[in-house]
Design brief:
CATH superfamily of the largest domain: 2,3-Dihydroxybiphenyl 1,2-Dioxygenase, domain 1
Number of strands: 8
Structural class: alpha+beta
Distance between the termini: 92 Å
Radius of gyration: 23 Å
């Protein structure tokens, strides 16, 4: 039996998720199930299911992240293929036995709390491969990250609203000042 369960997702690096969604969501009709802020990867990701797999749109949130460097160097496009495995530790052991170069020799925690490790493209004929093992904590971590993203959007929305209100008050004050100037003439 193969240690690989399925292709979990294909990740596509984009510079603008909303523009990318014009094709993936609007033109193709794929549904966005959730958007997640991934602070440790300095990115925001949007997930669009396609049967038993997903398309994952990845946008860097800083100019200095690995994703941002990749985007700057190669432009938008496929970043990696993610394979779901039952036992990531056993899979990594087998890969090391075969001399495969690993980006992550030990699993790290990825989006949603799953255990992940990347295989270097040097060993895969040019394809960055992510291995992923589901953990029991994944649903709770996904929810917490979704809430954090929603809180950040709400806060930014409130800041924008306060700025607009201040601008409009300034216009009103300016208009009122002009009315008083006209009365003095």
């Amino acid at each position: 039996m193969s240690p690989i369960k399925r292709i979990n997702h294909v990740a596509i690096v984009v510079d603008d998720i909303e523009k990318a969604l014009h094709f993936w969501r609007d033109a193709l009709g794929l549904e966005v199930t959730h958007v997640e802020d991934v602070p440790d990867q300095k990115s925001v990701v949007a997930f669009l299911p396609t049967g038993s797999s997903e398309v994952e749109l990845v946008k860097p949130t800083t100019k200095k992240s690995g994703i941002a460097r990749y985007l700057h160097k190669r432009g938008p496009g496929i970043h990696h293929i993610c394979l779901e495995v039952d036992d990531i530790q056993a899979c990594l052991t087998k890969l090391r036995e075969h001399g495969v170069r690993l980006v992550n020799p030990e699993p790290i925690i990825g989006t949603g709390g799953k255990r992940i490790a990347f295989v270097h493209p040097e060993s895969t004929h040019g394809v960055l491969v992510e291995l992923y093992e589901l953990t029991p904590q994944e649903p709770q971590i996904r929810l917490a990250r979704a809430r954090a993203l929603a809180d950040r959007a709400l806060t930014q929305g409130q800041l924008v609203a306060a700025g607009v209100l201040s601008f409009l008050r300034g216009l009103r004050d300016f208009r009122d000042a002009e009315v008083f100037d006209d009365d003095e003439e």
